[in-house]
Amino acid sequence: MQEHPTTTEEWRPVLGYEGRYEVSNHGRVRSIAGTGRLLGILLRQRKNPDGYPMVMLYGGQKRRSIKVNTLVLEAFRGPRPESMQCSHLNGKRDDNRLSSLAWMTAKENNAMHIIHETWHHGERHPGSVLTVETIETARARRDNGEMVKDLAREYGVCLSTMSRALRGVTYRRKANKETLAIATAWREARKMRDQS
Question: Domain 11-115, CATH 3.90.75.20 — does that match?
Fold first, then answer.
């Protein structure tokens, strides 16, 4: 994805690879070490199985594959704070512009995944056995007196999976109130930051 044309591209050293690589606020990474044609070359970004762009960085004899979103945040916002994750504010995993990234707690990041419907949870998970519709049917049957263990056996899942699905921990269609509150607070904070 590209930054808005009015935003100037700014380059900063990649944390831990100073003097070798730079990353921009547009989410691009370039080599600054070497000579000739290798100097200043943009690195190829490849997506990992989860859809996040990665680059291969070399330092001495070691090479490392690192998510571009992490490089951008570390260069422009500082090292990752303890217990924080990189979050895409617009829900687009391939948008590594600084303006669409933020450090968040796991709870805040999960809220964003639910809001943007990028959460691999419930029937969105590749290993899912149940669907939202089967859970709704199972809830109605449970409410009519059927035992959860019998429903679990019938649908071919373990008791804890069925219990969590029936309670709405998994397989929910909408975000809960707490999740919506977290996402709303982030949106409001971002609006205020953009206005100042």
Answer: yes
Predicted confidence (pLDDT) per residue in 76-118, tens digit: 999 999 999 999 988 888 999 999 999 998 888 877 777 776 6
Q: What are phi and psi of 103, to 5 degrees?
A: -80, 135
The answer to whether 71 and 14 have CB atoms below 8 angstroms apart is: yes
Tell me the pairing of strands 62-67 and 84-88.
unpaired
User: Strands of 46-47's sheet, edge to edge?
Assistant: 46-47, 53-59, 62-67
Q: What is the DSSP letter of 42?
A: B
Collapsing DSSP to helix, strand or coil, 173 comes out as coil
What distance lies between CA 134 and its chain's CA centroid? 28
pTM of the model: 0.66
- Beta-carbon count within 10 A of 64 CB: 12
Written as six digits, the tokens of 132 are 């939202």
* Domain map (residue ranges) of the chain: 11-115, 122-167
* Neighbour-count burial for 65-83, b at 16+ CB within 10 Å, e otherwise: ebbbbbbbbbbeeeeeeee
Hey, is 63 helix, strand or coil? Answer: strand
d(CA 117, CA 98): 21
